[in-house]
Write a structure and sequence with these properties.
The complex is a heterodimer of chains A (595) and B (113). Chain A is an alpha/beta fold and 595 residues long. Helix content of chain A is 64%, strand content 7%. In chain B, a hairpin with a 2-residue loop joins strand 3 and strand 4. The chains are: A alpha/beta (595), B alpha+beta (113). Chains A and B meet through helix 3, helix 8, helix 13 and strand 9 of A and helix 2 and strand 4 of B.
Chain lengths: 595, 113
């Protein structure tokens, strides 16, 4: 099968184009370095199946960071039949150096000048035909976002694939270093084919940045945006979650209860109280999660993340991290796993490890579900959003404290140099695509972990058969009782302990497990929790859930990204210790104050 | 020699370098930078000021990254803004906006326009 590689500098729209070509679901965002993995998809092109590979963006072929090495090794080991070079047309002046580096490798090339729509707004005019003549390769202007110019480019790609690759030179590196020649050729081509206005016209990005990056308004605006976003997610998502929960409860009462009535008692118990209750409680969160990721996609695609890096770098530098680390923490609000993988753009191993040590404290969307459920059960509707926001603050506090304590062990002098992309508005399609991807991701996790988890919890709370369900005589009761000396000082009872043990695998199981343990779901479960716990216990439980460890997938990612078992164990051990100490301090402190 | 004339000297050297830097684009093979460093670095510019890059004194990896982002001798650079609490700088080269720390900016010698 013929192979096409997508190559280009970071944040030029390779993944957006990849998605358009393959109908795939590569994660896209307005942040240089959002792709850190190789993704491939197969399409039918000109009558043949062709494999398309989306590579991480690179600044030059002899770079030193992990992602640049990934690309270099890939090109060495899998010479593509065609390299599709994606260039941001607004930055053609400097991005052409990579194109000329690639040209010297003698690979079959087709060039796509992406973001042609944006370049036009900047007043940059590019003579595609002239440039194509000078470079001796096909060049197309297009907009990967809106799809203009795309059919013509695809046609040319199919045509270019018919000619065999001239063959890639062995001494890759030495060739690439002929920068002097590249500079001269670049100047020649630019002079003849490109006109850039001497001073860019004042655009929306600049007007927005004058406010968003204001020396003393910038940070308050940042926190206000965060607060409003989380308020909105809570206020919009919580009723949605209630409605879906009620619908699922209605389905059980009106249909499933009677349908399963013929089954033996233990089996209908397992299916309804175990699998259905657990799954329904978790599934009720789907709208909240989708809503969360729609907001997240808007923030990521807008280019505001790079602004956050600018605003927070001064603080992060004092923690031994940099602005990119802060952006990874923000990305971790969605899911810690891609945030951990995103650290690949860092060259210094010490800084990368320190960043990976703090990311797991980032309050991910799975933990958000637990907190939304418990705050709604234990706090008044007025207080609940503020309680939720306080947990985000604790999430930052845990990350900051960890970085402060361990920055000495991960000393580094990584330079901070980052491109600042203009603000861009994601299309409705891009946002919808992101929401759909997250539903799929959630359903995959649900089928893998959550159902197995809730079945196991049901078994533990119903065995041995002689014991009353969920009583101290069951297996779960015994485990919970055994762990009580550790958790009692935190105000965490046996039932919550069982939920925490399963939460180690995935946080989505926590609420599902509670539903199974109490044999209730939805509002009935909230009621039971509200009666059994007071707010101090509930908050202590949430603090522990926030800090102790994200989930098994995150731990596996920590291990595979750090390639160091000792570091992974240290990260788990430290977060468990910090969780226990924080909950203890909170619970005992609140009790001592008389709450 | 007074302070004023020393400053004037450094400005003059800076001008010479700028002309040399500009020459890089027209006649690549003949240029070599052997001048002494003038006193201005990118880190000392104020928001809204333009300058010409004279030279970059960074280690190999950072140098490569800066080159790829468009930092080259002879190129014009504008300081857009500085973050508070001694945070990073936002600079503009051509159509590219770049964030970098003051410590990195101090490694880039410039000549004010």
């Amino acid at each position: 099968m013929k192979r096409i590689a997508l190559l280009g500098m970071p944040n030029t729209g390779k993944s957006t184009l990849f998605n358009r070509m393959t109908g795939g679901a590569a994660r896209v965002g307005n942040w240089p370095g959002i792709t850190v993995e190789l993704l491939s998809g197969k399409i039918l092109l000109g009558g043949d199946m062709v494999e398309i590979i989306d590579l991480p963006g690179i600044y030059d072929l002899h770079g030193f960071s992990d992602d640049e090495q990934v690309v270099r090794h890939f090109l060495h080991d899998n010479v593509p039949d065609l390299a599709l070079v994606i260039i941001n047309a607004t930055q053609i002046e400097r991005q052409m150096s990579l194109l000329l580096q690639l040209k010297q490798l003698n690979i079959n090339l087709v060039v796509l000048l992406n973001m042609a729509d944006e370049a036009k707004k900047y007043g940059i005019s590019i003579d595609g035909r002239k440039m194509s003549e000078l470079l001796g390769m096909p060049i197309f202007l297009l907009s990967g976002k809106y799809g203009t110019g795309y059919p013509e480019a695809l046609h040319a790609i199919a045509k270019a694939l018919r000619y065999p690759t001239p063959g890639m030179a062995e001494q890759l590196r030495s060739q690439l270093e002929q920068d002097v020649h590249i500079e001269a050729e670049m100047a020649r081509i630019l002079k003849h084919a490109v006109q850039v206005p001497a001073q860019l016209p004042e655009n929306l990005t600049e007007k927005l940045d004058r406010v968003m990056l204001h020396p003393w308004l910038g940070l308050p605006i940042f926190f206000a945006i965060m607060y409003l976003l989380f308020q909105a997610i809570f206020l919009l998502g919580q009723p949605l979650q209630g409605w879906v929960g009620e619908a699922l409860g209605w389905l059980r009462e009106s249909v499933l209860d009677s349908a399963f009535a013929g089954l033996p008692g233990w089996l209908s118990g397992l299916l309804l109280d175990g699998v259905y209750n657990g799954f329904a409680t978790v599934a009720a969160f789907v709208p909240l999660i989708v809503l969360f990721f729609l907001f997240m996609a808007m923030v990521e695609d807008s280019g505001y993340l790079s602004r956050a890096a600018f605003l927070m770098d001064a603080l992060m530098a004092r923690l031994g991290l940099d602005g990119r680390g802060f952006v990874m923490l923000l990305m971790g609000f969605g899911c810690n796993v891609p945030a951990l993988m995103g650290t690949r753009v860092m060259r210094s191993r010490a800084m990368r490890l320190l960043t990976m040590l703090v990311i797991p404290f980032s309050l991910c969307s799975a933990r958000l579900q637990v907190f939304v459920f418990i705050t709604a059960a234990l706090f008044s509707p007025k207080a609940a959003p503020a309680v939720l926001f306080s947990l985000y603050l604790f999430s930052f506090a845990a990350a900051i404290l960890t970085a402060l304590l361990f920055k000495g062990r991960f000393r580094n002098s990584e330079p901070f140099v980052l491109e600042l992309p203009p603000y861009r508005f994601p299309t409705a399609y891009q946002i919808a695509m992101r929401g759909w991807m997250e539903i799929q991701h959630f359903l995959r996790r649900a089928t893998k972990f959550i159902i197995a988890g809730v079945v196991l919890v049901w078994l533990l709370t119903n065995l041995p058969p002689s014991a009353a369900p969920a009583s101290p005589d069951t297996l779960a009761g015994m485990i919970g009782g055994f762990m009580q000396p550790v958790f009692a000082p935190l105000g965490i009872n046996e039932q919550l302990t069982i939920a925490l043990i399963f939460g180690f695998v995935a946080k989505e199981i926590v609420i599902g497990a509670l539903a199974v343990i109490y044999g209730l779901s939805g509002t009935a479960l909230s009621g039971a929790l509200g009666q059994q716990l007071d707010w101090v216990q509930a908050y202590s439980f949430m603090l522990f859930t926030l800090i102790y460890t994200p989930c098994l997938s995150a731990i596996a990612t920590l291990r595979s990204e750090s390639k160091n078992m000792r570091f992974t164990l240290f990260a788990i051990g430290w977060s468990l210790a910090l969780a226990w100490l924080a909950s203890l301090a909170f619970y005992q402190g609140a009790r001592a104050l008389g709450y | 020699m007074g302070v004023g004339s020393a400053a004037a000297m450094s400005v003059e050297r800076c001008r010479q370098q700028r002309d040399k830097g500009g020459a890089l684009w027209n006649n690549v093979s003949t240029v070599e930078f052997t001048f002494a460093m003038p006193s201005t670095t990118l880190a000392t510019l104020h928001p809204g000021e333009f300058a010409t890059i004279v030279s970059i004194h960074a280690e190999e990896a950072l140098h490569q990254r800066l080159l790829a982002l468009g930092f080259r001798s002879g190129k014009q650079i504008e300081l857009i803004r500085k973050a508070s609490f001694s945070g990073p700088l936002q600079v503009r080269i051509g159509t590219t906006d770049v964030l970098l720390r003051r410590s990195e900016a101090a490694k880039i010698t410039v000549c004010k326009v």
